[in-house]
């Protein structure tokens, strides 16, 4: 079972990587896919927790975050530069919006807002200054 999950993770995270000739872009495509799928995996237990606690709005929001992460990885599977740009923008937006939504729902005492510090590093990981031009 674990091997099956690892094979799936490897297959999904390598979508679109080989289509790019530049090794730096390939590295960022792989990183974007890994972040997207890791968010999907990390969020999965919370869907069941929020459903058990009957917090339906949080459950729906978590499913939306998970789905958006999976869609971002699938978009990268097209292997075009435009697909990578869309997937990267989708993942950056997904992270920022999810932290904002959960901070609003759970409040300041939950510490969810501290995720913004990790999110502040995300553009530096996924973007290159050469892309700005």
Brief synopsis:
The protein is mostly helical and 133 residues long. The chain has five helices and no strands.
Shape: globular
Fraction of residues in β-strands: under 5%
Number of strands: 0
Question: What separation lies between the terminal Cα atoms?
Answer: 46 Å
Structural class of the helix and strand makeup? mainly alpha
Fold and architecture overview:
The relative contact order is 0.13. With 133 residues, the protein is mostly helical. The chain has 5 helices and no strands. The protein starts with a helix and ends in a 7-residue tail after the last helix. Helix content is 76%, strand content 0%. The protein is globular, with a radius of gyration of 16 Å. The mean pLDDT is 83.
